[in-house]
Design goal:
The chain is of the alpha+beta class. It has two domains: 436 residues, Dipeptide-binding Protein, Domain 3 (Dipeptide-binding Protein, domain 3, Roll); 114 residues, Dipeptide-binding Protein, domain 1, CATH 3.90.76. It is 22% helix and 21% strand. Strands 2-11-10-9 form a four-stranded mixed β-sheet, with no helix packed on it. The radius of gyration is 23 Å and the shape is globular. It starts with 5 loop residues before the first strand and ends with a strand.
Length: 570
């Protein structure tokens, strides 16, 4: 499953099922083995989603792929939403803002006829005008009230359990412009990240915190959606969601006759792809590559991964209550060995990953983890634990004040590579007297296990929906941040971020300030350990074009493209 969500996650998040969504190689139609040998540095990686002009694609055909889960919370703006929530949401809700692979956002002309940013009396003003035809499925026009309702839901007050208020809490007002179709968004002072807001919007009918928090629980609310596709079938029990062309759509007609998602774990998905039942699959381990190698009529794609896989510790547990213990735990993890296990057979290498804010291929990136003083050092880890009062019992497990140095780490897939990664971590932690129990759960339990914090250690993959990591820094490092799963972040972090990062006048200055501050935040919390980014590799049936149009999906990096343009070559 997957992370980030900045919107970063924004992050949104998603957490992980264990592997990066890697996939690859082909047989038959196309073989890209000459392109699959990657070396450091990673900035050479690009988007690889088989981008084709829609005029070259046929009208008709179906597309079926696997999805990790149908999350209980189906409101994509809610903090309990997952990457799977966003994936489904994108196919029946407005895609108001689109993005290039490298992260430059722009308004979708099917929804927005004009978008302007200006400065009035020292305040940044964003003006957005909806096209006349834009309306929700229930007939409600998309207009300035759509932007107002989205702002109210995200600004950080009145009980809305949103994913993050960053940016929205800087807005002073949303008002009607020259007509109902025009929204005038006025910020309090200067605001640098207007491009990062309003990717997802919410229907004005969601007009209270109670509706925002509960209306979408196990209810997709098709009538509040809009776009080229509508819900044809939504069966969470069987794990099937199907979309069909929406007769109320005003833009370019969708190319597919039917778009279907089926809940499957990675092993079942691979088998279904091999049987011809799926059109696209992740195949990013040596074993999975070998299984698809002889298949005919397939094509493989590889791109830079806008995901960050991290090991989290639950700081609410008594064995992890102090900073020194958490630091020692992470110092016992040999990240190179973990990467060797995950990347075996992929002909892939990457330098150590050291930030939860930026990726190594982004301008301004620094290795914050190294700057925080982190090193893999088992001897020093044991010294820290000795000083923290942990003693070793006869069975090799440490104990302090009657609390055993042990814990449970759930995994959510039965893929051998997922299990191997978990057991590598388990073996490494034995060297410092930590007894790790690995438990396997179906992917459908991921949301509940994560939300209810039924774990001591957990590997999460955060997938970013945009390139504006410095803006979403508080999601990871603030005490109430949507991605603060460790619970290790002190309250003081929020004011530090506001003062040192948010207070800078430009994007460039904020990126530098974020990179300067992050080592301190890591050093004073030790709530998570970045492990790797990895590539994204997927294998598709030949002829499928414009893959992964939604946020977080990988092959198009930060790209968000119109879902109506996904289709098949003639």
């Amino acid at each position: 499953m997957t992370k980030h969500s900045r919107r970063r996650t924004i992050l949104t998040l998603v957490a992980l099922l264990a592997l990066p969504l890697l996939g690859c190689t082909s047989g038959g139609t196309s073989s890209r083995t000459d392109e699959l040998v990657l070396t450091s540095p990673q900035p050479t990686l690009t988007s690889d989603n088989d981008s084709v002009d829609r005029a070259e694609l046929k009208v008709g055909g179906t597309l079926t792929t696997a999805i990790d889960e149908i999350s209980p919370q189906l409101n994509v703006l809610h903090r309990d939403s997952q990457v799977s929530t966003q994936t489904l949401w994108s196919w029946y809700n407005p895609q108001v803002i689109l993005s290039t692979a490298t992260g430059e956002s722009y308004p979708n002309p099917a929804y927005i006829s004009d978008r302007q940013v200006s400065t009035v009396d020292g305040n940044t003003v964003l003006t957005m005008t909806f096209v006349d035809a834009a309306r929700f499925n229930d007939g409600t026009p998309m207009d300035w009230r759509t932007i107002e309702s989205t702002w109210i839901a995200n600004r950080g007050d009145n009980g809305y359990d949103h994913r993050g208020s960053t940016g929205y809490d800087s807005i002073a007002s949303v008002a009607r412009g020259e007509s109902d179709k025009q929204a005038v968004v006025t910020f309090s002072g200067s605001f640098a990240w207007t491009d990062a807001l309003f990717f997802n919007v919410i229907h004005p009918a969601v007009d209270s915190a109670d509706k925002f928090n509960t209306a979408y629980l196990d209810d997709s609310h098709a009538e509040w959606g809009a776009g080229p596709y509508k819900i044809e079938t939504w069966d969470a029990g069987s794990g099937t969601v199907t979309f069909a062309p929406n007769e109320n759509w005003w833009g370019d007609p969708p190319l597919l006759d039917e778009r279907t998602f089926v809940v499957m774990n990675s092993v079942a998905a691979l088998n279904a792809f091999k049987a011809g039942d799926l059109d696209l699959v992740a195949t990013g381990t040596a074993d999975r590559l070998e299984q698809v190698e002889a298949m005919q009529g397939t094509t493989s794609y590889r791109a830079a991964n806008v995901s960050n896989t991290m090991l989290f510790v639950n700081a609410a547990r008594p064995q992890f209550s102090d900073l020194a213990t958490r630091q020692a735990l992470f110092m016992a993890i040999d990240r190179e060995r973990v990467k060797d296990e995950v990347f075996e057979g992929l002909d892939y290498y990457e330098s150590p990953v050291g930030s939860a804010v930026l990726y190594p291929f982004q301008q301004g990136y620094d290795d914050s983890l190294a700057a925080a003083g982190y090193t893999f050092n088992v001897a020093e880890a044991n010294n820290l634990l000795d000083e923290a009062g942990w003693t070793t019992e006869a069975d090799g497990t440490r104990v302090r004040d009657g609390v055993r140095f042990e814990g449970e780490m759930p995994i959510f897939d039965d893929d051998p590579a997922v299990e191997s990664r978990a057991y590598v971590i388990r073996q490494q932690l034995r060297a410092i007297g930590f007894d790790l129990k690995v438990t396997t759960h179906p992917s459908t339990e991921f949301s509940s296990v994560l939300r209810e914090k039924n774990w001591d250690l957990m590997t999460l993959t955060f997938s970013s929906s945009d390139a504006y990591g410095a803006m979403w820094m508080c999601q990871v490092y603030c005490v109430d941040g949507a991605l603060n799963f460790s619970g290790a972040m002190p309250e003081a972090f929020q004011s530090l971020i506001q003062e040192r990062v948010d207070g800078e006048p430009s994007k460039e200055a904020q990126v530098k300030a974020a990179m300067d501050l992050e080592p301190q935040l890591m050093r004073e919390s030790w709530g998570f350990l970045p492990l790797y980014n990895g590539p994204v590799i997927k294998t598709a049936k030949a002829g499928l074009a414009n893959l992964d149009p939604e946020p977080y999906k990988g092959l198009d990096m930060f790209g968000i493209q119109p879902v109506e343009d996904v289709g098949w070559m003639e």
